[in-house]
Amino acid sequence: MTMRGITARNRLWLPPMCMYCVEAADGVPTDWHAVHYATRAQGGFGTIIVEATAVTPEGRLSPMDLGLWEDAQVEGHRRLVEAIRAGGSIPGIQLGHGGRKSGTPPMRPRVPGARQGTLEGWELWAPSPVAFPGHAVPTELDVAGIDRLVEAFAAAARRAVEAGYEVIELHGAHGYLIHEFLSPLSNRRGDGYGGDAQGRRRFPLRVVEAVREAIGEGTVLDIRLSATDWDEAGLSGQETAEFAQELVGAGVDVLHISSGGNVPADIPVGPGYQLGLAAQVRQAVAGGAQVVGVGLIEDASQAEQALATGQADAIAVGRAALRDPYLPLRWAADLGAKAWDEAPWPIQYWRATWR
Ligand SMILES: Cc1cc2nc3c(=O)[nH]c(=O)nc-3n(C[C@H](O)[C@H](O)[C@H](O)COP(=O)(O)O)c2cc1C
């Protein structure tokens, strides 16, 4: 898979997955992150997108998230980049701001799913003062606040490039800030940043343009979108397909198509349930950008089928890759690779490929 002249060894992506484990709460990657990402690079992924990394401290989803809001955080990210590249993968990172869903309690001590509600006193910004159920009411951003956040995205992207990341993914999905502007369910503004689709797209497009300029021609720009809110009054696949065309015009190279997260909804979850949305976007951009499909794609033949039928240009595998970091190597074998050099095996493990 070639993006802006950068070639990944295959079409499998590790999607961004927050580890919520920066104990020092300073946004700096830890040993856990280095080992976690290095292992998945050695496991054969073509492209690895490091988890949602906040562009401002208050934009973290929890106090234990990664950040790139200051220069002191660059060095730790450089370490992740080196570990990912040494394993043979293209290093990427997701940059985001949590908007009205920022500041949830950390998953420490070990309480699975603890991230509910808003921490007392957390600064919560959003397009409109509309709370996500169970969270605090956010403060509406004024235009100066919007300008500040556009600049924060650009500055974080500049730092990401300095750290060596080759793919910058903007988090425009799952009910976080960019998605909150796009969706009429969370954007009730009466000024030029709300109202019709053009108004709701203005902040996201400003971020895309500022980041495109900040990262230069040699870096891939990717945006993750929730193609639908799964709610009749919210974003639809059709609206997102149209927006995708505008994003390509603004310099986006890759669209990573997810869904939901902005309001509670009945989502028809099942194998490959978001691939139809990816295909709709891919058709709309007609080769102007590449599309990544994601969501319960858990066996090799299903992934291969989605690529062969043109639903997506790449497949991201999340939870299955938390269970098995060597999933790409196993999938290569499932698809018939026999010799060690037919799959991205680390040379150190070549004896494990035959008995
Ligand atoms: C532990 C965990 C953390 C996640 N964190 C993020 C994130 O930081 N950014 C994001 O866009 N999606 C995040 N997601 C969603 C995944 O990237 C992916 O879209 C989702 O898990 C569906 O793919 P899967 O069925 O292959 O797991 C997360 C998912 C999990 C399981």
TrEMBL record:
Record bears the keyword Hydrolase: no
Cofactor: FMN
UniProt keyword NADP, yes or no: yes
Keywords: Flavoprotein, FMN, NADP, Oxidoreductase
GO molecular function, a single term: NADPH dehydrogenase activity
A Pfam family assignment: Oxidored_FMN
SUPFAM superfamilies: FMN-linked oxidoreductases
Top-level taxon: Bacteria
EC number: 1.6.99.1
Domain named NADH:flavin oxidoreductase/NADH oxidase N-terminal: residues: 5-332
InterPro entries the record matches: Aldolase_TIM, OxRdtase_FMN_N, YqjM-like
Coiled coil: none
PANTHER family: NADPH DEHYDROGENASE C23G7.10C-RELATED
Protein name: NADPH dehydrogenase
